[in-house]
Structures
1.
Amino acid sequence: MSQAAAAPAPIHAPASAAAARATGLSKVYGSGETRVVALDSVSVEFGRGHFTAIMGPSGSGKSTLMHCMAGLDSVSSGSARIGDTELAGLDDRRLTRLRRDKIGFVFQAFNLLPTLTAYENITLPMAIAGRRPDQAWVSAVVRTVGLAGRLDHRPSQLSGGQQQRVAVARALASRPEIVFADEPTGNLDSRAGAEILGFLRESVRELGQTVVMVTHDPVAAAHADRVVFLADGRLTDELLAPTAERVLDRMRLFDATGRTS
Ligand SMILES: Nc1ncnc2c1ncn2[C@@H]1O[C@H](COP(=O)(O)OP(=O)(O)OP(=O)(O)O)[C@@H](O)[C@H]1O
């Protein structure tokens, strides 16, 4: 990448264009004795229309990378881009708008409003933004995540898996440039978790969505097109067309070479 001569070459996405890109991205917390280098010159591209999993041991910088890429945290140096937009130079107002217009989020906690129906939760971000939902798109999303019969239900009337489906639909409903999912199956049993991963997968295949997911789980990572591995704030490796076994093998290899905690 021309603008990052000093940074290591990015690990390239297997896609024609990147929906998001970090170049020489570093994040340092604290100073002096409490200084922590959470990210150390990370360069990575997240391909448009692809599903990427970020893996690595606890404390390796996965959440920090996701937060910096999503404009939820500032970068110390280097570049974080969503499409063509450089996040580093944006003030709070522009960052808020970028998150609202271009990014969908799915977190471990479903973060639904209890007094609203599933449909109202799904379309809430657009209502706040004063945008009218694209009904055909929202219908496609609702079909994809299998919520068609439950749109009038409130969160308390839905199972955990169904609530997370609403959260996934909410993330997809505004047709964001990219969806960031942070341990989206962490609060679900394995069946409901597999369903959610299937829907994320489906949103990539059927709707052309770009998804980036942080996970500890090799089985979850196997739903992605590609896994990138972090250790000690650095990008160390990647795996294309992962299977749970290959991801596990790679994790064991890291342990054996002492690159992980
Ligand atoms: N706000 C903060 N202030 C100080 N240090 C932080 C902060 N956030 C993260 N860190 C540190 O940065 C490093 C990377 O943390 P991060 O949460 O990104 O790791 P992670 O790979 O997501 O871990 P986990 O899998 O446990 O969630 C850790 O050493 C962590 O203690």
2.
Amino acid sequence: MEEKPTLKNSTKVIEIKGLNKSFGNYHVLKGVDLDLYKGENLVVLGKSGTGKSVLIKIIVGLLTPDAGQVSVLNQHVDQITYKELLALRLKVGFSFQNSALYDSMTVRENLEFPLVRNQKSLTKREVNMAVEEMLDAVGLLQTINQMPSELSGGQRKRIGIARTLILRPEIMLYDEPTAGLDPITCLEINNLINEVQERFHTSSIVITHDLTCAKAVGNRVAMLLDGQFQRLGTFEEVFNTNDERVKPFYDYNFIH
Ligand SMILES: Nc1ncnc2c1ncn2[C@@H]1O[C@H](COP(=O)(O)OP(=O)(O)OP(=O)(O)O)[C@@H](O)[C@H]1O
């Protein structure tokens, strides 16, 4: 598998400096610095409980940091009004781990929902076209009238991604996109994440424990260790180490 190039000459779409967050006595994020460059897929790795979700919640303004700066698309998330934050969130798509589809709605209705809610000026025809185009992009146009319960886990994941993409976000946040899927479906989801990057020019943060996914989709990889991104670079750079905190990740995923 060929390593993807880093895109560090692009502009920054997320800039995080000196981010700190504690819950009671537990200091989760201890001065986190991180940049996301336009057009790149940045994979975030780290043991359970190291603060990956906390970081994502701070990026979308669901949690407030104790200290530090978080700029998303040139806006400081902790300094903007609630209305500005809501507008910013529309530009940041969040693909949940459990896909979070509405079980009582068809696939078509699931995709229509965010569009109709957020882009009230669209005609019925425009909504239909957008839904069909997006389902086609994830290869599932044939499921348009099905219920989520009739789909496989991989298909639900794709529909969840399509539903997030339909608002054409500039940034995508993927939370464990391959969790609980078989290896073949994992490869399909990895390919989809790469297709989304190419076709929609999104910049993405991908949280995962799956190093095959990290290697396949990441232009860069960042590993959260003891409250900071202590390893950051290409996949090879991050794992070319004898650091005992890093090696087990590799050994567990790629038994050699
Ligand atoms: N709202 C909250 N109140 C109190 N503690 C919290 C809150 N949110 C997160 N935490 C704590 O912060 C730590 C980091 O949680 P987080 O969910 O970010 O971990 P994670 O790295 O995403 O883990 P996983 O890989 O298991 O999803 C955990 O110890 C968690 O209990």
3.
Amino acid sequence: MKIVATDIARSFGSTRALSGVSITLEPGRVHALVGENGAGKSTLLKILAGAERPDTGSIAIDGQPYAPRSLAEATALGVRLVFQEITINPSLTIAENVFSGQLARFRSRGLLNQAAMNRAAQALLDTLAVDVSVAQPLSRLDLGQWKCIEVARALSTEPRAVLFDESTAFLNHREADQLLAAMRALGKRGLVVAFVSHHLAEIAAVADQLTILKDGSKVGDFAAGELDRDGIQSRMVGRDLSRGLYPARPEARLAGAPMLRFIGVTAEGLEPTSLSVTPGEILGIAGLKGAGGERILEIAAGVVRPRSGGVTVGGAPLVAKTPADGWASRIAYLPGERTTEGLIVDASVLDNLVMAKPPRRGPFFDRAKARTMAQAMIARLLIKTSSEKARSGSLSGGNLQKVVLGKCLAIDPRVLLLNNPTRGVDVGARTEIYRSLREAAKEGLAILMVSEDLNELIGLSDRILVMRGQRIAASIDDPAATSEDAIIRHMT
Ligand SMILES: Nc1ncnc2c1ncn2[C@@H]1O[C@H](COP(=O)(O)OP(=O)(O)OP(=O)(O)O)[C@@H](O)[C@H]1O
């Protein structure tokens, strides 16, 4: 199968998501789509997969016109989309997830032939060369394996093209490696494979071909290896980023008593832990899922109660018994899941940005002040939205992430708790976010950041704690002198 899209345009209201984009996807080649948040990458994949219609332009498959009106129609014509979000149903078995919507295939006279379905699901998983057995309960698998089950589901309809929309965004690097290997395997089998990613290392690892989009237009098509990292990044953002992603660390640390302190804190999923973050400091936390890093954030945010030990903020015992208490005492929390925990997608960008601390005049909501605050945050974090009144759900994934961060910064916090703050955020915007975080730290903010992106931890943190087995396994005082490998060794 060869897919040729010509002159595709698509607008949403006054936003031009795509204009005049042409792209050719060849069989057996892995094609990467890159660009800043809001560049139009997801919209392009959705159009190819039947989830959106183009306003103008045409698509042909092997020379035949192709204009799917729905995901189902595209599926029937051999094109499947794997979404960014996890779409596994944990109450079903692995095989039922693989064949969801198609169970009738394994039913005869009202009875489900579980054994046949399991065999078929296993066969699909085996073609991906991933280590998943259908006999395992879903709860034993990691997110990367879940994602591979979704790929197996896509393969269950025998597609000839599989499109991945930022499918590694919620995976740690080990999980992402499994998915990338699966993509490579599909390419080797002669399928069309296209994926969106913000991680240039992933692109270097699997892509044969690269298309760069910017503001809805195509910058160009490139063969793998034709551009180096700087070349890709500067074409994505339209300016030179070679000065580096991360701001310089301050020469001297702010002196001062710890702003956040854990003294022998235990909780479910956390062995006795002591740590402190001083004003001005960015403390990074590395570790595999479940190793305790996220738990530390949840305790400091008032989401999880410690079993024993003490937590102090600004020298006084933490009173956050609920997340609302946390916000009220100027502890801002950016959770790992933006759309379920971090914000309300049906509310406007403005409402989300000021939600944690709505400005008031007397007893009333001060809309004029809220608008000024929201506009300032949109400018500060380069949030791409038609206006502060737009529905948050209309923003691209990376821009939503910036809204959640903006909501945190808008309360002028003393402590900022971050769980993977730049998930799905493009490289240009990340530079701005890192700069904003460093500036806020310089003004006395204490930042505690859990991240699966080890480069981010190394580049931004003043110190790194590595969690293993729900306790601190190592403390790295000079991140500039460490390496990803060294951190991974402590993690595993
Ligand atoms: N359903 C929609 N309603 C309104 N605007 C939309 C809708 N879908 C996309 N847009 C807008 O179209 C533009 C392109 O969005 P798209 O999701 O394709 O970007 P993207 O390149 O995938 O970004 P990201 O890297 O952040 O996921 C954005 O400005 C976005 O706000």
4.
Amino acid sequence: MSLAFALEKQVAISAVLRACSLTSAVFNKLVKNETLVKGDKSPVTGEHSTRVILASDTLPVADYSAQAVINVILAQAFPSDPIVGEEDSADLRNDADPTSATLRSRITELANEALALPLRDWEKAEWGIGPTHGQRTTFQLLDAIDRGNFSGARKGRMWTLDPIDGTKGFLRGEQYAVCLALIEDSEVKLGVMGCPNLPLKAGDEAGEKGCIFVAVKGQGSEQRPISSLQDATPIHIPTRPLSELRTLESVEAAHSSQSTTGRIAQALGITAAPVRMDSQAKYCSLARGDGDIYLRMPTGVGYVEKIWDHAGGSLLVTEAGGVVSDSRGQPLDFGLGRTLGENFGVIASGKDVHPSVLEAVRKARAEESQKL
Ligand SMILES: Nc1ncnc2c1ncn2[C@@H]1O[C@H](COP(=O)(O)OS(=O)(=O)O)[C@@H](OP(=O)(O)O)[C@H]1O
Ligand SMILES: [Mg+2]
Ligand SMILES: [Mg+2]
Ligand SMILES: [Mg+2]
């Protein structure tokens, strides 16, 4: 008897793999060759006007094409499943914008190249299924992107997709993740995250990079090297003394209050500097024990979190033995629509330390309100 969600898992890994191949190709062909990233790895800004045009052109190409590829594959395997995807094609259909025709032709070329990737041996051997993805026309690909327009629902089955999470990290050549998750009746059942720039072993920058993380509800979490996807290694959050814990947070200060996370770390007695990393690679790092506490505290500008930024990562952490909640200790609600609703932040950690983290959050909050 096959395990629950076996087919969904196969299809999602195949789709994420092809999207990762595409995003790596975009980085190598466009971002690197067109020197869009400066020597110090900061994203290109106003220095060279031609580069700025290329940067703004290249940035969405990878996101749109990856969403097109994954949605084509999902539509083929599960034609009636709705998808909540980050991107939509409105800007690509706007002929008043002179860049949209160029973007469309690049997307068509890139997506078809990824869809034509041959089956790997492990796909044939393990699954006996395979993508038989014919070439798509430009407008078929735009329609595929727009399969991601579903508004979300409390009941029923849907996928959620972030074709590139951590777009800024992607442009810097640092961490980003291709994130796909399956949700049923508001509960995340499957999460597949591709992290092409993440070392197989924490901190081993000189070693092999490129991992796919997979979690299935009730079946645990695993890591697979992109180069050898048949080799699944189960991952678990280790238990460490409080004093040895490290926090994980966003690189972008606008996405999470670094002053609040600093206070929380202090209240916990943590002395190590926070590990700053773009994207859901933070959830992946936590799930395999590279960091211990993921803190994402609202900056107070009214931003609402999106379900595609947390669905897969949160299941990966819970299946690896952790807890994911908002800063009040409430579970994240994936049944509210495209967003997680009012932003109470996100706190993820091992089960044993989670209550202490919530207590530290309360303390940090109280200190901050006294300062006001
Ligand atoms: N103001 C604000 N507050 C909180 N979050 C925001 C905000 N603005 C954007 N985003 C979302 O952050 C996603 C990037 O992920 P991270 O914040 O984890 O990584 S990063 O360090 O900021 O790169 C990023 O995902 P991508 O757009 O897919 O890159 C956004 O969905
Ligand atoms: Mg994102
Ligand atoms: Mg994105
Ligand atoms: Mg985005």
